[in-house]
Specification:
The protein has 308 residues and is of the alpha/beta class. The protein is built from eleven helices and 13 strands. The longest helix is centred in the middle third of the chain and has 16 residues.
Amino acid sequence: MSVPPAVEVDGLVKRYGTTTAVDGLSVRVDSGAVTALLGPNGAGKTTTVETCEGFREPDTGRVRVLGLDPRRDSAELRPRVGVMLQEGAGLYPGAGARELLTHLGRLHRHPLDVDRLVERLGLGGTGRTPLRRLSGGQRQRVALAAALVGRPELVFLDEPTAGLDPHARHSTWDLIGELRGDGVSVVLTTHLIDEAEQLADHVVIIDHGRLVTEGSPEELTSGPGDDVISFGGPPRLDLSTLRAALPESADVREVTPGSYQVAGVVDPHLLATLTSWCATNDILAEGLQVGRRSLEDVYLELTRRSAR
């Protein structure tokens, strides 16, 4: 017997005046999995998630969350779904973290232990401090705790590690992994592509309100032509003669000043062509290495193509 999806979005359209924020988007979020929603600013991520959370009504299309309509059945969904907004948005700015989480926990039948949750997220020393006096990273952790305290079946996390230091970021990653291990479905929006690659079972990339591609990180970063050669050299090299010497299918670009990448089917001939070009132009290819494209490489390529 197949497990029903945690979230189903089918042909979603949402407009604001003459602007179409979401344009016929269809997405499925599997139960018990972490699904990352990626896209540039203005791609329609926030509108899509807010529609799933019941904050916005579709113009056309169908949205189901845990099999229910997020607006019509909001009262039934509220105790089953956790929502994390950025930096504590929507929470009481005058409340302390422990006071707030205790109050929220009392609204649920089987809440998590507040003391353990506070300590786990490194908030023990700020339990009585009003939210408005906390740092952005601390408010972010309170927002995460508020989304989790009711033991939700599904949780929406909006930029959960924005503003966190590396230690807190990795602690949050561990916590999200534990949620998945406990069978909680997670929808994650993030601008940190390495975060999506690390955490997600399924990645959905959207742009201009439309689906660009989707799949597991492994599926999106593997396949013919997905190898890369990376090397360093002087910044702003003229790559036109290198492009002319390589196969048409190869993509050559300066990723950051002085950091170069050749993507395509990497074979001995392509590697020899590259090193010969470097020798002819008196370029020492520093740190030259052959590897697989990262999810960030795929994301940048697809969203650039979508923009074009």
